Amino acid sequence: xxxxxxxxxxxxxxxxxxxxxxxxxxxxxxxxxxxxxxxxxxxxxxxxxxxxxxxxxxxxxxxxxxxxxxxxxxxxxxxxxxxxxxxxxxxxxxxxxxxxxxxxxxxxxxxxxxxxxxxxxxxxxxxxxxxxxxxxxxxxxxxxxxxxxxxxxxxxxxxxxxxxxxxxxxxxxxxxxxxxxxxxxxxxxxxxxxxxxxxxxxxxxxxxxxxxxxxx
Length: 216
Hints:
- This protein is an alpha/beta fold.
- It has helices at 7-13, 38-46, 58-63, 66-72, 91-104, 117-132, 147-152, 179-189; strands at residues 20-23, 51-57, 77-83, 107-112, 137-141, 160-161, 198-199, 211-213.
- The protein has one domain: TIM Barrel, CATH 3.20.20.70.
- It contains 8 helices and 8 strands; from the N terminus they run αβαβααβαβαβαβαββ.
- The termini are close together.
- InterPro entries: 3-dehydroquinate_DH_AS, Aldolase_TIM, DHquinase_I, Type-I_3-dehydroquinase.
């Protein structure tokens, strides 16, 4: 919601079919929201029926655990996320991060920055182990090196997929895959027993992205 001009107004006029993931990140977590009032705006968004998920950073969940129950009272599920924009933690560290996220929320989400392909294998293996342990987890490796993890993460148990809806591909972040192509890749790599909960967007009749980021 940090990227929308009037996110609450957009929510009021939203007539799409997909449930919305609402998140409101400050610059430390890759967003543009100011700290003051950031969570208040996110809480206001969580009152809307179309908002099914709220994405909150692990660091915020740790520091303000009390607010999680307030969000739950609005009948939303919590995605607790951790973003590492510089590296990919070792497997045991990344496993511990997912465990911590799962301890606070319904879905544990991690995004890491790979330096090489072995880092992407670390992410995928941790997702597989988390899934086998009964944890609902989601994860991507950012950048061009990690682009393939967006398409095959579901094979390893990732519950969420993300795709941009922008018409201008020059505005895509490195490694992002357009929705239509991602959908085709996911379908072509789907195997028995895997479950991708939702590619968080649709191609047809979209009024706003299903992941809504709040403004400054």
